[in-house]
Amino acid sequence: MPIYEYRCSRCRQDFELLVRAGAAPPCPACDTPTLEKRLSAFAVGRAAPAAASFAPGACGTCGDPRGAGACSMN
Asked: Which helix or strand (DSSP H or E) is residue 8 part of?
């Protein structure tokens, strides 16, 4: 189920809801069913970070819970 952003046409409340396709949710503030679906920020088209930024760093910085040197990156 995707998360959609809405704005209520009556009280102008902005909110997000996890809804099934085709479902018509009411406003959580005033319970009116008349909503305007908004463009989600994640759908705007921001570039993903470079793959190099996900590479683990020097020994001890990969986040292995066993501590520095335990991840066998050497």
From this structure: strand 3-8
The pTM is what?
A: 0.48
Nearest CA among 30, 63, 58 for reference residue 12: 30
15 CB-contact burial (10 Å; exposed 0-12 / middle 13-18 / buried 19+): middle
What separation in angstroms does the CA of 39 have from each of 16, 17, 44, 48? 11, 13, 8, 19
Residue 8 CB: number of other CB atoms within 10 A? Answer: 20
**pLDDT digits over 15-68, tens only?**
888 888 777 889 999 999 999 988 766 655 556 555 555 555 556 566 666 766
